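Hi V.,

Quick status before I head out on leave. The structure for the redesign project is tokenized and pasted below; the design run finished overnight.
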């Protein structure tokens, strides 16, 4: 049985949590392979909303083992709060498993994240301030603290001291801040050891053994393709690889064991934070999409920037991730728009681009070239088959599929788990080409 990857195809907030939840009853393990509590999911079950920031959405499905993989950076305070919140709402979190190799977001990472953003001024990236970037910097710089270090007080103190030797110099001499106390930080981190001990395992062995037994493992990527540190709109990106390949690295599952890669894409485009956004709407239509789509960041509470669907971005995401299927979300938000634009090319200083420009400069100067499709006014939230959709909505979906070069296998028509049209089976079979 397969390993399956779910990846956001745009800048995040596409509805990956709902897609994971939809597949929950068909899988045995759901893994978060990258990111931290900067990548929130909203899942609505029978009208009840759950906002998850660090835990994989699979934790909401009984019988599924949720796993935080080695590629995640874990804020222990946020993890504790989220577990307590779910427990209070009747969700059993006892099956949660955490990689011993996952890195820790220490309190000083959050401090550095915030002061660095302020220091950058106009060049600020628009981070969540949760310390994710600094934690990944320490990981790559070999100054990181891993979950397993919390079970050895001596090792932990040495690592905290090593990390703070550099950071305290920065905080005091560059940012005019107080020094962080080594002993206080060590004790704070050690206080989580007893809670974590039953959850921490060798998740690489756990997941590969599950695949050997014929069980299904779903990897639920945080953030999205265009926030990937290598393939996204750098430097306005996250500090990990939320593309499909990064899911293998962040879980310890080899690429030959992945049989399906599902891309999640909104019927329009949104973005949180700074950076270029060719189809962004700073008019009444942008306000319409923001209001009707409820476009507010789960983690930040910031309104999301909104724009029309960008076909060039999705083609690029299909290529980079090797998508076998797409899940189109929030189609219902477009109801009531007389003509719905689709960006099919960019005009960059008089040159027409039908694929993503090679350079950041070109992308920054890209002007969208649109084609328009007739809209629909009918309420589609109750539709459960493609045939029930208005003809204009069916044509819009078909056109997006053609432009993507990848079949659309499910369509979201509302926030609830049940408000989904299943077009094709999302669990993997042979590789798929575009359907008619």
């Amino acid at each position: 049985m397969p390993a399956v990857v779910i990846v956001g195809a745009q800048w995040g907030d596409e509805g990956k949590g709902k897609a994971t939840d939809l597949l929950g009853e068909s899988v045995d393990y759901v893994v978060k392979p990258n990111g931290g509590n900067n990548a929130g999911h909203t899942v609505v079950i029978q009208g009840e909303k759950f906002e998850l920031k660090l835990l994989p959405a699979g934790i909401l499905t009984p019988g599924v083992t949720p796993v935080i993989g080695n590629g995640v950076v874990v804020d222990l305070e946020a993890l504790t709060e989220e577990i307590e919140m779910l427990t209070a709402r009747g969700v059993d979190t006892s099956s949660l498993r955490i990689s011993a190799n996952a890195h820790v977001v220490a309190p000083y990472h959050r401090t550095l994240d915030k002061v660095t953003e302020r220091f950058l001024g106009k060049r600020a990236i628009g981070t969540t301030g949760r310390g994710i970037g600094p934690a990944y910097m320490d990981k790559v710089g070999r100054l990181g603290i891993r979950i397993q270090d919390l079970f050895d007080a001596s090792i932990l103190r040495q690592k905290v001291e090593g990390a703070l030797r550099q950071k305290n110099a920065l905080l005091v001499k560059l940012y005019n801040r107080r020094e962080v106390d080594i002993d206080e930080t060590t004790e704070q981190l050690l206080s989580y050891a007893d809670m974590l001990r039953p959850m921490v395992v060798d998740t690489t062995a756990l997941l590969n053994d599950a695949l050997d037994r014929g069980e299904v493992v779903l990897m639920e990527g945080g953030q999205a393709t265009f926030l990937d540190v290598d393939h996204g709109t750098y430097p306005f990106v996250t500090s990990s690889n939320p593309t499909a390949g990064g899911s293998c690295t962040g879980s310890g599952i080899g690429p030959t064991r992945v049989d399906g890669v599902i891309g999640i894409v909104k019927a329009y485009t949104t973005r949180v934070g700074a950076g270029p956004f060719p189809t962004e709407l700073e008019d009444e239509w942008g306000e319409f999409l923001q209001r009707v789509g409820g476009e507010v960041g789960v983690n930040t509470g910031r309104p999301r920037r909104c724009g029309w669907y960008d076909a060039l971005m999705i083609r690029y995401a299909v290529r980079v991730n090797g998508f076998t299927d797409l899940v189109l979300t929030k189609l219902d938000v477009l109801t009531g728009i007389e003509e719905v634009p689709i960006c099919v090319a960019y005009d960059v200083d008089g040159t027409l681009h039908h694929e993503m420009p090679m350079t950041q400069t070109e992308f920054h100067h890209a002007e969208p070239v649109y084609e328009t499709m007739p809209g629909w006014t009918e309420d589609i939230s109750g539709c459960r088959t493609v045939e029930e959709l208005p003809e204009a909505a069916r044509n819009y979906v078909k056109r997006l599929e053609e432009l993507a070069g990848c079949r659309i296998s499910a369509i979201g028509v509302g926030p609830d788990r049940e408000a989904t049209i299943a077009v094709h089976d999302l669990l993997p079979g042979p590789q798929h080409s575009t359907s008619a």
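Above is the designed sequence. Residues 429-436 have pLDDT under 50 and may be disordered.

G. will cover questions while I'm gone.

Best,
W.
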